[in-house]
Amino acid sequence: MVNIRVDPRLLRFSAVAVVLIFTVFILSRGSTTTYTGSVGGVVPSSSSGASYSESKVQVKQQIGQGVITNTINEKGLKKQAQKGTVKATFVSLARNRDLWSLVGSIRLVEDRFNKKYGYDWVFLNDEPFSEEFKRTTTALVSGTTKYGEISKEQWSFPEWIDLDKAAQVREDMKKNKIIYGDSISYRFMCRYESGFFYRHPLLQDYEYYWRVEPDIKLYCDIDYDIFQFMKDNNKKYGFTISLHEYQATIETLWSTTKQFMEKYPQHIHKNNMLDFISDDGGASYNLCHFWSNFEVGSLDFWRGQAYSDYFDFLDHAGGFFYERWGDAPVHSIAAALFLDREELHFFTDVGYFHPPFHSCPIEDEYRLKHKCMCNPADDFTFKGYSCGLKYYDVNRMQKPENWEKFA
Ligand SMILES: Nc1nc2c(ncn2[C@@H]2O[C@H](COP(=O)(O)OP(=O)(O)OP(=O)(O)O)[C@@H](O)[C@H]2O)c(=O)[nH]1
Ligand SMILES: [Mg+2]
After folding, report:
1. Residue 226 within any structural domain of the chain
2. Where in the sequence is the domain holding 368, given as residue range(s)?
3. Is residue 214 lining ligand 1, measured as CB closer than 6 Å?
4. Cβ neighbours, 10 Å, residue 250
5. pLDDT tens digits, one per residue of 298-327
6. What's the structural domain count of the chain?
7. Angle of helix 327-338 versus helix 253-263 axis, rounded to 10
8. Nearest Cα to 325, choosing from 216, 176, 173, 199?
9. 127 tagged catalytic
């Protein structure tokens, strides 16, 4: 039997050497950020039959000197993260030039909510996104970012539209100073948000979405998973601000909707919320709608038969071009008619701003506890042009104490 004696100094030296080698190895790996981009190539057709030009690429950014900090941050984050598990994503339609208006929105959404949950973010554009847009937004989002292009077919005049008639309408609206009345791209945007965003291939993997626009603010800490809340409570459509639409942009939207209801009575839910959008049992539209620049909703609701039939009906009626139908009244009427009223949700707690209206929780206790940064006097909910009070009333919701002071 051989007796092996090891020198303790040699042992100590070997241990230190191993630690050093391991540290150098870790440092040399760097940290990576991965995003999925869309840069030409072909993916399968969407359910609408349109084909998209895009393919996924993995882009890795070497952060070099920032390695140690990033690694520590990453570890710290992972420790804290409650990581959301719902199949859900943020979605923003934007142009490259919207980048710097959108970064503020993203940063607030991340700070107030998403850094805890790490949900993905899908960006859609009618043109290819610039590298600067992709790099900048990817750096801000805690989840995976994905960039998609919109097919020309979904961002153009459908073949049944009389282009001369549509041009005449734009001319007239311009004279009448109707906001965005002379814009073609605004109409493409409204039609896209009404009938196509949820069919984009990048959204096929998700059940819920949260729409975020440039220049919005989130005022309060959100300390629960909003997507999980939607799922657990069987909510299909959530909003923060509701208001009256400009009549001049939707002259025939309600009469067209009434024709639709006659043709498809099976799509109207027995426990609908018609009383929110009509004050006379459906004879006329009271112009109330949910402001769609904030929406948290079920993608399957839009993909379902009722909404698909409704969008096709409206699209063929031509009001996106012969008038200036917005996606907000279109989504709102659909949600009010086709959903069980229990499936709608008023997010009175998030604290939200899209120019020029604020939603600010008026109860002091809530506002302080959630570190809200808004002035309750600015809250729009109970003001005249809002439909917030109506929503509380038709749903017999208890209004906050002292709400009259904020009316
Ligand atoms: N890709 C693309 N996105 C657009 C276009 N027009 C608007 N958008 C996006 O569509 C959303 C709605 O457009 P906005 O200009 O915010 O419309 P709005 O909210 O009615 O009006 P303001 O915010 O008051 O200007 C935003 O997310 C925009 O970034 C466009 O021509 N192309
Ligand atoms: Mg906007």
Report:
1. no
2. 163-195+233-407
3. yes
4. 23
5. 999 999 999 999 999 999 999 999 999 999
6. 2
7. 30
8. 173
9. no
Q: What is the DSSP string of 201-252?
A: GGGTT-SEEEE--TT-EE-S---S-HHHHHHHTT--EEES-EEEPPGGG-TT
Output the CA 214–ligand 2 centroid distance in Å.
6
- The answer on 403 and 306 residing in a single domain is yes
Tens-digit pLDDT profile for residues 77-130: 443 446 899 999 999 999 999 999 999 999 999 999 999 999 999 999 999 999
Can you tell me which atom of ligand 1 is nearest the CA of 185?
31
CA 183–ligand 1 middle distance (angstroms): 11
Tell me the CA–centroid distance for residue 121 and ligand 2, in Å: 18
Q: Label the pairing between strands 295-298 and 237-239.
A: antiparallel
Cα–Cα distance for residue pair 221/373, rounded to 1 Å: 10
In this structure, are 239 and 272 located in the same domain? yes
pTM: 0.84
Which one of the ligands is nearest to 98 CA? 1
Residue with the bigger pLDDT between 42 and 348: it is: 348
Q: Would 19 be classed as within a structural domain?
A: no
* 125 close to ligand 1 (CB < 6 Angstrom): yes
Region at 31 (left for phi over 0; alpha for psi -120 to 50; beta for the rest): beta
Q: How far apart are CA 282 and CA 219, in angstroms?
A: 36
In the block, residue with structure tokens 């805890």: 116
